Structures are given as C-alpha cells and as structure tokens.
Amino acid sequence: MRALLPLLSVVRGWRVGAAARPPRRVMSLYRTEERGHPHSKDYRLFFKNVAGHYISPFHDIPLKVDSPKENGIPRKKARNDDYKNLFNMVVEIPRWTNAKMEISTEEPMNPIKQDVKSGKLRFIPNIFPHKGYIWNYGAFPQTWEDPYEKDNNTNCTGDNDPVDVCEIGSKVLSRGDVIQVKILGILALIDQGATDWKIITINVNDPEAEKFHDIDDVKKFKPGYLEATLNWFRLYKVPDGKPENKFAFNGEFKNKAFAIEVVNNAHECWKAMLMKKCDHGAISCTNVHVCDSPFRCSPEEARSLIESVPAPSMSKEVSKEEERWHFLD
C-alpha cells in the first residue's frame, strides 16, 4: 500500500491521497482532470462524474440540492427552510489568488480555463489591502444571464454567463471544487451596460454556517466584509485604466429572497437555452445529463469531443501581476 501512495496523490478530484484530510461528501460526486500547465493559454480543467464520464460543469451539475440527505446521510443541524436554500457552486477561483479562471461557455464540455484579454492571460490586480480575490469565487451551474432579455430590476440585459458566486466561508477552496452553499444576498454590478449579478453565499459545511441565513447576518458576524466586497468590485478594473464600476440600487446588497428569485430566473433562462427555445449565440450547449435537450450527447461522444482538442503545451507564462500591488485613493 505504501508504494501506491505517490500514485494516489496525483488523482485530483477524489483526493484519496490526502491522508490527513477527511473526505468531503460533495467532492465524491465529481472529479477533475487537468490538461496543460496552469498560467498557460492551453490550460483546461475538465470535469467527470462518479462513473468517470466527462460532463459539463455548466450544464450537467444540478443547480439545486433538493434532498435533506446526501448519499443517504442526514445533514446535521440544518433548519428545515435551509433545505430549500442549498445550491451547488462550482469554484473557479480560490480566495487570495489572481488568475481570472472561468468556465469556458463557448468550448465543448465547458472546461475551466484562464481568461485572455488582448492576447495576454488575465490576472486580477492586488488593490491594497486586498490580495487577489477576497472570497472563493465561482458560478452556479445551470444558470444563464440572458443577453437578449432585459432585467426588470436593473433595466439592463444579462452578461451572457452563468451567475457569479462569492463564497465567504473560512476555508480556502480549490479550483474545480463543487460545494453546496446557502444563498445569503446579492449585489447588482453593471458591467459595460449588462447586469452582472454577484451572489453572496456560504459553504454549508463551514464551521460558522449555522449563523448565516440572510444578508444581515453577514453584516453582523463579518463586519466590513460587504463594504470590502463593494469596493473590490468598484475598483478592480481601475489599475487597467478603466473607470470605476457602477451598480444598480446604489450599491445596496439585496436579501436572500431577492437573490433566490434572481437565481431561479437565471435557471429558467438556462433551461430555455438548453431546450433550444431561445438564441444561445456562441455558447456550447453540449451536455450529457439534461433529459430532452437537443444538445444532449452520449458519454462516448463527450469523450471524443475532448480528445479531439489538440494536446496542450506544458509551457508556463510568467506574470508579475500576482506580485504587484496598487494603492488607490
């Protein structure tokens, strides 16, 4: 068995080689496969289900966690109404990191990759006193902010992406983790005339999760965090020479009920897209598990799509952006 440990430690997703860490229940449902080197344009992080079949993290991971039990195990100390407020989050960017990683909506099977702007890999600047992202950042699967539909609350269309999620728990998560979160509130960023919702959540397995049920609990138990979040989103593009970002509702965070309504609407928009009831533009809707979707493919077809992608290089692009700090008034 001792000789097998080095091999087991490289199988990312199952994390069976991390002897000191107990297994997390949600992670047993999904695993990830890296191709290429992080911080390279060829880097991709693909997702697989428990059977080892490739899946899309955008389309094949369910949005909602409907059962009070997980793998037959009742959850501990959860309020009854919390069962209706459990959602799966795909972690794209761990807290304190700078690389702008995201689900690639236009590539088959939607792997996570690093965003590229003007031919260069994108890194979010450090704006004092914040190092990189100040939450675990990611997206809700099976949601879509429709760029052809105007939001009644903001009077702006969607940004053509899954709904963004900021997870405020105590643990620094890993890229590709799929965790279950409670929705607490929402911020409406207006990005180049499009609505870019930011959902505030907490990992249901966080040691302090029992204290958090709505946005006022964040104000109470993590004072200053929402103000820091607002300032982060307001300023993060300024070092690149762009103006400060704007917000709907004068930057006010809306509560859990408002946030859940936004997420549910984005889920309906996603369903319409996957059923070919609206224009999906360049988005790849290929999926393995969405019943009745005209874009559904077999596991074998999904594997063929991924294996047809050219082999990535192992070169790593060097960037100083992760080390540079910006001091703004």
Automatic annotation (TrEMBL):
Gene field: Ppa2
Keyword set includes Signal: yes
Catalytic activity, EC: 3.6.1.1
UniProt entry keywords in alphabetical sequence: Hydrolase, Magnesium, Metal-binding, Signal
Cofactor: Mg(2+)
The keyword Magnesium appears for this protein: yes
Signal peptide from the UniProt entry: 1-19
Organism the protein comes from: Microtus ochrogaster (Prairie vole)
Ranges in a coiled coil: none
Family per similarity comment: Belongs to the PPase family.
Protein name: inorganic diphosphatase
